[in-house]
Amino acid sequence: MAAEKPAAIGIDLGTTNSCVAVFQHGQVEIIANDQGNRVMPSYVAFTDADRLVGEASRNQAALNATNTVFDAKRLIGRHYEDAVVQKDIKNWPFEVANVGGKPHIQAEHKGEQKQFAAEEI
């Protein structure tokens, strides 16, 4: 009997929305989140108590704009001085810092100022 192949996980990290799928037993299944949605907004928010993702993050964005991150995909693999990065920074309510030539998102989380690479978001 042939050994069963391990499951493979795929992540579709979109600028606007993201989803996660698993391939196992010859089929692909898109995984639903806690709200039952198979696609969620590509947002992450930091608060004094939590890190919020998806709908929860987007829903509070107006009240916590400087600590709510979106478009993080646009920073992956780029240098801080790239013209595209500099143009985007002007349109975002959150801060982006130059850390060793790479763009890092600044946010206050649990009362502390922190910096995150786009890949961490």
From TrEMBL:
* Keyword annotations: ATP-binding, Nucleotide-binding
Q: Report the InterPro entries cross-referenced here.
A: ATPase_NBD, Heat_shock_70_CS, Hsp_70_fam
Amino-acid biosynthesis is among the record's keywords: no
The residues the entry assigns to the signal sequence are none
Transmembrane region positions? none
Q: Which GO terms describe its molecular function?
A: ATP binding; ATP-dependent protein folding chaperone
Family (UniProt): Belongs to the heat shock protein 70 family.
Q: What's the protein name?
A: Uncharacterized protein
